[in-house]
Amino acid sequence: MAAPALNSRAGSAGSLGNSPTSTHNSAFNNNKIISCYPDLDFRSGARIEELNRLIQEFSKHDQREYDDQRALEIHTAKDFIFSMLGMVQKLDQKLPVANEYLLLSGGVREGVVDMDLDEIGIYSRGTDFDMAFTLLVPALKLHDRNQPVTLDMRHSALGHSWLSLRLFDEGTITRWRDCCTLAEHLNGATNYFFSPTLVAEWFQEAVALVLAELRRKPQRGTPKVERVERHGTLLSMVLGVGGSRMLYDIVPVVSFKGWPAVAQGWLMENHFWDGKITEEEVISGFYLLPTCSAAGCRDNEWRLSFARSEVQLKKCIAPGLMQAYQACKAVTSRLMEQPGVISPYHLRSLMLWACDRLPASYLAQDDFSAHFLLGLLDDLQHCLVNKTCPNYFIPQCNMLEHLSDETAMQHARVLAIARSDPVEHLRAAIEQVKAANRLTQEMQRRGSSSGLPSPQSESGSADHQQPDDRLAKKLQQLVTENPGKSISVFINPDDVTRPHFRIDDKFF
Prior knowledge:
Elements: E1 26-29, E2 32-36, H1 48-62, H2 68-92, E3 99-105, E4 131-142, E5 150-152, E6 160-164, H3 170-176, E7 180-184, E8 190-194, H4 196-216, E9 224-231, E10 234-241, E11 244-257, H5 264-267, H6 279-282, E12 285-289, E13 302-305, H7 307-314, H8 319-335, H9 344-357, H10 360-363, H11 369-386, H12 405-420, H13 422-449, H14 462-481, E14 487-492, E15 495-503, E16 506-507
Parallel strand pairs: 4-11
Antiparallel strand pairs: 1-2, 3-4, 3-14, 5-6, 6-13, 7-8, 9-10, 10-11, 11-12, 12-13, 14-15, 15-16
Helix pairs in contact: 1-8, 1-13, 2-4, 2-14, 8-9, 8-11, 8-13, 11-12
């Protein structure tokens, strides 16, 4: 399956006169200039300059800047989550002792990972939270290359797999036996299949036990757990710290080193990141997410995820295209009544395909954001009309194959409305993000005026406050100096007070 390409748009930056999303700046008749026109979008008549300005305005309101206080609140919430997970590990020793989590900026509903959105509830920035994170928590960490692993894809759609524990050691099978489904192997032995639903159920129950224990023994300065909800295999938790509300989407996963055979063909192709980052950085590992295909077995089927690779690829994407993607995501998310049909992850995949398809010199143009946004809308509508959206890492996997013709066309018509008037829909998206920011600021003012505890105010003395200040500054420094890099956190359940950060191959 080829990437979704509209061939008339491909080409170098010098061939934009043939683009369906732009026009020439001048009209000629008998070699005489009649008049000069602004650069227009052929489909809607919108001024490209106006679209660029609106995308810039959206980006300004959508970006969050963190001062020292906010950085400290982020650290306090993160430390609470990792401490909680350390207590979960101690309950029955199921989780790896020295675990490695992947913390991603943005929630699952923002397309950070590919999970089914129709099952995970609606959370709105400003109304429900101020900042969102996704945390992948390995239930099994299969990083030993000598560990035999059986990914059984015989019963699954492309991009999905069952995981057999048949070749694992007896200790692992004993620990996880109650989270497995059983089947008879050909040789008569019992085959244990690691169940995503049973693993998620165990994990959510374990977290509930730990939170109940923490409520019985509250400590000053810890975040307030404002909301905990189960959405299928996803656990969503909102923490209140000072004047901030932070949403953590916590997902139990299976973590692997290396690269799956089903995605080997992708490595043989040319990609936009060639020469910018190494192949070793891109293929450092993958995950199994607890979500299944449309016709898959929910109790046994996992979905392959390349979230760690996507973190690496993100730093190779031009800023103008990334801004257009964020604006397009906001526009399409407002339009879709059924979020499970088209998710932001589909749009992210199209952006990666566009990076492969289009010249880097074209994508690097700072004032082409409007063309990028219009192109993403065109690509998304094209995918719906043809019911074809190939997974970036497994191109033969069509992520829209399960859609009915009626559903696909219904959503294509909705997109056509936005495409015919992108200016109006961008303005609506800007007003929405501005309203969310006002709600956030109002919540922060209420938190300050009501005397809600902040991490600094709970320190107790300057002696305790100073290390926290240094840690907040260190966190800011790590984020600033390592844009787009994969940031992992190690935790020792016997000493949750010490941070163990890994940024790519560096440890802190």
